[in-house]
Amino acid sequence: MHDTPPPECRLTPEQETRVALARADLTLARDTDLAAADPAQLITLVESLRGSLDDVLELLTDLAM
Q1: CA pair distance 56, 65, nearest whole angstrom
Q2: What's the predicted TM-score (pTM) here?
Q3: Per-residue pLDDT tens digits for 5-39
Q4: 3-class secondary structure for 17-64?
Q5: d(CA 57, CA 52)
Q6: Do 59 and 17 form a contact (C-beta atoms < 8 A)?
Q7: What 3-state class would DSSP assign to 14?
């Protein structure tokens, strides 16, 4: 076991913005009444979530390097 705490990871303002946008997309998806949404809205929602997921995964990859 390690007794030292892990190093702090500080995000740049750009990275914080990327995370905030992903969180906003997730909040919108959670607040959307999926049963009342028309197919075009659902497609837009899914594509937005895909883009956010891709961006956050890229951010994690960048941070891990």
Answers
A1: 14
A2: 0.76
A3: 666 778 899 999 999 999 999 999 999 999 999 99
A4: HHHHHHHHHHHHHHHCCCCCCCHHHHHHHHHHHHHHHHHHHHHHHHHH
A5: 9
A6: no
A7: helix
Instruction: Enter the tokens of residue 11.
Output: 């995000």
- Can you tell me the distance from the alpha carbon of 45 to that of 49, in angstroms, rounded to the nearest whole number? 6
Contact indicator for 54, 24 with CB cutoff of 8 Å: no
Structure tokens at 44: 């837009």
CA neighbor of 55 nearest in space, from 11, 15, 24, 28: 15
DSSP designation for 7: P
